[in-house]
Amino acid sequence: MTDTTWSKVDDFINERFVGDDAALDEALRASAAAGLPEINVAPNQGKLLMLLARAIEARKILEIGTLGGYSTIWLGRALPTDGMVISLEANADYAEVARSNLARAGLADKVEIRVGRAIETLPTLAGEAPFDLIFIDADKPTTPDYFQWAVKLSRPGSLILVDNVVREGAVIDAESNDRNVLGIRCFYDLAAADPRVSATALQTVGGKGHDGIAILLVISAP
């Protein structure tokens, strides 16, 4: 199997289960034109986020890491009419691109982007908790802290999703000095030892390469 094959399979899946989507396509074009890194989730992964949010009937969603708002659009589409996404983004320029993309997708009234370092913003969200679904897709060294805050801001039955938890297999390297790998390995250790959650992780391959996503169910009160 090669990266080329993975990409072709992604294309096969997306053609059948995602299809053309003007708002999402334009969000990617606008993000690229603004110089944002092309690290958004793949279309089929974005739809997975939406389906999971719908499956648990999420009304309040927290996203840590907005980037250009691509995954935010998917999450926003899962919401009922009275639902809300709060998305945290450290880069003010990225946030402006995301706001434009969300407005174009008709979701400006369902998504609030809060600018600032997420680790500083998270403590201010206690009054708005609990969140039904929390998606963590931000700087990897801080993922352990984001995970701990996510549990605090959840309720029994909430889902916590953590992206990029395989890192092309580097996660198994116990001798790694890569801060991204170290952060993800620490997250695994914390999640495995935390009795408040039941967790698993899946490897993913596709147009975005070899990585993975962790899915955690909150089973007891924080």
Q: How would you characterize the overall build of this protein?
A:
With 222 residues, the chain is an alpha/beta fold. The protein has a single domain, classed as 3-Layer(aba) Sandwich (Rossmann fold). It is built from eight helices and seven strands. The protein has helices at residues 3-17, 22-33, 43-55, 70-77, 92-104, 118-121, 143-152, 179-193, and strands spanning 60-64, 84-89, 111-115, 133-136, 159-163, 197-206, 209-218. It has a seven-stranded mixed β-sheet, sandwiched between helices. Helix 5 (92-104) links the parallel strand 2 and strand 3 (111-115). Helix 2 (22-33) packs antiparallel against helix 5 and helix 7 (143-152) packs parallel to helix 8 (179-193). The longest helix is centred in the N-terminal third of the chain and has 15 residues, at 3-17. The protein starts with a helix and ends with a strand. The relative contact order is 0.14. The mean pLDDT is 97.
